[in-house]
Amino acid sequence: MLNDIYNKRIIELAGNIPRLGRLPDPDASATAHSKLCGSTVKIDLKMDGPVVTDFAHDVKACALGQASSSIMASHVVGSTANELRELRETVRRMLKENGSPPEGKWADIALLEPVRDYKARHASTMLTFDAVVDAIGQIEAKAKQPASAQG
């Protein structure tokens, strides 16, 4: 039942999203959009090597997109590129392949586990994870360019 996915904790997360806004000088920005529901998440990311040092986002999404963005914003700073790539895959497997939710600092994502039964809600739930991994890829690609090409 849809009430299972829109529980009190999801609504609390959606209503209290940290790090809203945009960064003035991000290393990369990325946007993820769900054509199905119209939800959009724009993120700005700063990194020092493989570690996220700052994050902001503009979230125009349903409660599930807002809740996943809230969880991301709460824990992303201090996370590594590899950790965040693995997180996206873990959440994707949780939704699409009945995989286990993440543990540790990302354990709140287990609140989104009931979404697996609602395929139409998967895209909005994944937006923040997709955008963060996109931005990491942009930053890594820039770092591999010769200094003269970055100008």
UniProtKB/TrEMBL annotation:
Residues 6-123 form the NIF system FeS cluster assembly NifU N-terminal domain. InterPro entries: NIF_FeS_clus_asmbl_NifU_N. GO terms for molecular function: iron ion binding; iron-sulfur cluster binding. Pfam families: NifU_N. GO terms for biological process: iron-sulfur cluster assembly. It comes from the Bacteria. This is Iron-sulfur cluster assembly scaffold protein.
